[in-house]
From TrEMBL:
UniProt keyword terms in alphabetical order: Aminoacyl-tRNA synthetase, ATP-binding, Cytoplasm, Ligase, Nucleotide-binding, Protein biosynthesis
Family membership noted in the UniProt record: Belongs to the class-I aminoacyl-tRNA synthetase family.
Subunit note: Homodimer.
InterPro entries, per the entry: aa-tRNA-synth_I_CS, aa-tRNA-synth_Ic, Rossmann-like_a/b/a_fold, Trp-tRNA-ligase, Trp-tRNA-ligase_bac-type, Trp-tRNA_synthetase
Designated name of the protein: Tryptophan--tRNA ligase
Motif residue range(s): 'KMSKS' region: 193-197
Superkingdom assignment: Bacteria
Sequence positions that bind ATP: 9-11, 17-18, 145-147, 184, 193-197
Length: 327
């Protein structure tokens, strides 16, 4: 039994890509491992956030975790900012990570493009705080979407360097990336990942989209001009829609191909929209229910943070000693 840890940013409405890429894999692992899942509010502020909205989005992210089936009895759920050891270790790891390796991070390159000198130091440094999040808990497995793989690899490199310099301290974590669903593509641009920061809402299916939004977005999803429903990597739009359909209905690509033999894209899209409505409806009901009980949400975060704090402080004591600041 290893330790599994993951997190997401409370930076907007979560989409079906976040659910399939990260939350579902965590749910599967929750049964066999010791789990930690949290809300990285200090990562979210690397780009400007409205404080009032940030607070709501933190509670919303927690409601999504709980509504999806993440169980506070089995999983330690908490808010990153409640555990100051994350930022403390982040600083120490800043002194181990190199500018060169951070400059190679593709997420930073994508998110800072065209922002010039205005881009925050925090956005550049973001992967180091993520490394601290992971290493503080002696994590073995990090379930994430494909876009985060490079950050977990950087975490391993930083951990290895620290271990060489100061003696074995950190466990080397492994990313857990599912074969299908780790990179759900944008509905309007199937060559780029679905993203909650996309300008066009037709890019994503939000977990809170209603029936008509789902229907409109799926019907207008970009596909090539083919006719048959056949899974082919060279038709990224259709392959993406088939991946979503396969994951939410648990049907294989062969079964989907059979189901739609002799039918066209229109029929398939209608059926996919219907399947998404059925899939999201119970989740949405539960999210709204959890959001009504703010005290309960705060209680869950508080209990989780007590457990996390205990582990984090034990680890920090070792780290402070290793680097020579404990007198
Ligand atoms: P954004 O959508 O704004 O780019 P993000 O990826 O930076 O968001 P999070 O919302 O914190 O940030 O991501 C939470 C989890 O969802 C991560 O594990 C991430 O890899 C995963 N994820 C994000 N987008 C997708 C996607 N399109 N397909 C699969 N997994 C995804
Ligand atoms: N960078 C991640 C969120 C994140 C994370 C973590 C994921 C921050 N710290 C630790 C796994 C483990 C993202 O999805 N944007």
């Amino acid at each position: 039994m290893g330790r599994v840890l993951s997190a997401l940013q409370p930076s907007g409405f979560l989409h079906i890509g976040n659910y399939l890429g990260m939350i579902e894999p965590v749910l599967i692992l929750q049964e066999q491992h010791e789990n930690f899942i949290f809300i990285v509010d200090y990562h979210a502020i690397t780009v400007p956030q409205d404080p009032k909205k940030l607070r709501e989005q933190i509670l919303f992210a927690l409601a999504v975790y709980l509504a999806s089936g993440i169980d506070p009895q089995k999983t330690t759920i908490f808010q990153q900012s409640a555990i100051p050891q994350h930022t403390e270790l982040g600083w120490i790891l800043n002194c181990v990570a190199s500018m060169g390796e951070l400059e190679r991070m593709t997420q930073f390159k994508d998110k800072s493009r065209n922002k010039g000198e205005q881009v925050s130091v925090g956005l550049f440094d973001y992967p180091v705080l993520m490394a601290a999040d992971i290493l503080l808990y002696d994590t073995n497995i990090v379930p994430v979407g494909e876009d985060q793989k490079q950050h977990v690899e950087l975490t391993r490199n930083i951990a290895q360097r620290f271990n060489q310099r100061f003696g074995t301290t950190f466990t080397l974590p492994k990313p857990e990336i599912r074969t299908h669903g780790a990179r759900i593509m944008g509905l309007d641009h199937p060559e780029k990942k679905m993203s909650k920061s996309a300008e066009n809402p037709k890019n994503y299916i939000s977990l809170l989209d209603d029936e008509s939004a789902i229907q409109q977005k799926i019907m207008s999803a970009v596909t090539d001009s083919g006719k048959e429903i056949i899974y082919d990597q060279n038709s990224p739009g259709l392959a993406n829609l088939m991946t979503i359909y396969s994951l939410i209905t648990q049907k294989t690509f062969e079964q989907i191909q059979e189901e739609f033999e002799g039918k066209g894209y229109g029929d398939f899209k209608k059926q996919l929209a219907q399947a998404l409505i059925i899939f999201l409806h119970p989740l949405q009901e539960k999210i709204h229910l959890y959001l009504k009980n703010e005290d309960e949400l705060k209680r869950i975060l508080h209990e989780g943070s007590l457990r996390a704090q205990d582990i984090a402080e034990k680890k920090m004591k070792q780290i402070r000693k290793k680097i020579g600041v404990t007198l």
